[in-house]
């Protein structure tokens, strides 16, 4: 399923993952992340898929287009119970 770069960017921001850390997790350059998040038309399908996989590895579940609710994503279970210091 194709995930729009706006959703990928939103998921990264909600998870509070830096562009650099996401790039490392996806096995691509930080420049590729910046291009994707600026909606550059040169962004490849491979880049989009790599970023999607990396975010899914963090527990994000992407939701396909729904005629009533549109598309979106779910966060990992318990995400909002966690803080940066682990409490």
TrEMBL record:
Gene3D superfamilies: lambda repressor-like DNA-binding domains (1.10.260.40). Residues 8-38 form the HTH cro/C1-type domain. SUPFAM superfamilies: lambda repressor-like DNA-binding domains. Transmembrane segments: none annotated. InterPro entries: Cro/C1-type_HTH (IPR001387), Lambda_DNA-bd_dom_sf (IPR010982). PROSITE patterns: HTH_CROC1. One of its GO terms (molecular function) is DNA binding. It comes from the Bacteria. This is Putative transcriptional regulator, XRE family. It comes from Rhodopseudomonas palustris (strain BisA53).
């Amino acid at each position: 399923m194709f995930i729009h770069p706006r959703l990928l960017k939103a998921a990264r921001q909600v998870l509070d993952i830096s562009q650099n850390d996401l790039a490392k997790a996806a096995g691509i350059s930080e420049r590729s992340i910046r291009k994707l998040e600026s909606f550059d038309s040169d962004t490849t399908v491979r880049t989009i898929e790599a970023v999607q996989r990396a975010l899914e590895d963090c527990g994000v579940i992407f939701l396909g287009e729904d005629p009533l609710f549109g598309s979106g994503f779910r966060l990992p279970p318990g995400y909002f119970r966690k803080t940066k210091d682990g409490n």
